[in-house]
Write a structure and sequence with these properties.
globular; single chain; Cobalt-precorrin-4 Transmethylase, domain 1; alpha/beta; 219 residues
Length: 219
């Protein structure tokens, strides 16, 4: 019975996301960063904050991307939602099942793109956990930051500062420049890289907010 409830919740959540995202105009910026990396044969790891998921989930649907999703009950719900959009979740997190999930993601990068929410699954918000750095180091993949924002929006008060938006709106989907991680980094250099990635993701959110605020009706 519990699983049926989860499935129904996931079904209606997916329905709401689908309808809502089809009722906004989305301007995609920076996609050439991703396209060039793909053209050059790079392995791709998307990174984005937990609070900026809605448009990217919809925009990247049905591509077989393999996101990292926790083994918790919340993760089971998220996994059901994502599967309905054509994603193929890999289950695990830094607190449970992380080692197994890490190796599955390494294998997945041989023929798929993967996605990591580096402040998930429960925060602290906008504090980057280093797992995406280690994965990029060991696989040679590039990290591609992603964000979105909308002209009309509300930021919720939860730990992840989740961005929600009304329909009949204008939104921006924004990619950042690919980031290559050196294989040979000392511990201090790894921490500096972690802080730099954290800063870049925050700046990408700010840039998405600025660009969305400037959108005109004719996009």
């Amino acid at each position: 019975m519990e699983r049926v409830k989860l499935w129904l919740m996931a079904f209606f959540t997916r329905l709401v996301i689908n309808i809502l995202c089809r009722l906004v105009k989305i301007k995609v910026l920076g996609e050439e960063f991703y396209l060039n990396a793909k053209k050059n044969g790079e392995k791709i790891i998307y990174i984005l904050w937990h609070g900026r998921l809605l448009i990217p989930i919809f925009f990247h649907r049905k591509r077989g991307i393999r996101p990292l999703v926790s083994l918790s009950k919340d993760g089971e719900f998220a996994s059901m939602v994502l599967k309905g959009f054509g994603y193929e979740p890999i289950r695990g997190s830094s607190s449970k099942g992380g080692k197994e999930a890490f190796y599955k993601m390494k294998e997945a990068l041989d023929n798929s793109e993967v996605a990591i929410i580096p402040d998930g699954p429960r925060g602290p918000g906008r504090v980057l956990k280093p797992g995406c750095i280690y994965l990029a180091q060991q696989t040679g993949a590039v990290l591609i930051p992603v964000s979105f924002s909308c002209k009309k929006k509300k930021i919720l008060k939860g730990w992840d500062k989740h961005l929600i938006f009304p329909p009949f709106n204008r939104c921006v989907m924004l990619y950042g420049e690919p980031i290559k991680i050196s294989e040979n980094l000392a511990q201090e250099e790894l921490e500096n890289m972690r802080k730099d990635l954290e800063r870049r993701l925050n700046e990408l959110d700010e840039e998405a907010d600025r660009l969305a605020s400037e959108l005109e009706k004719n996009i």
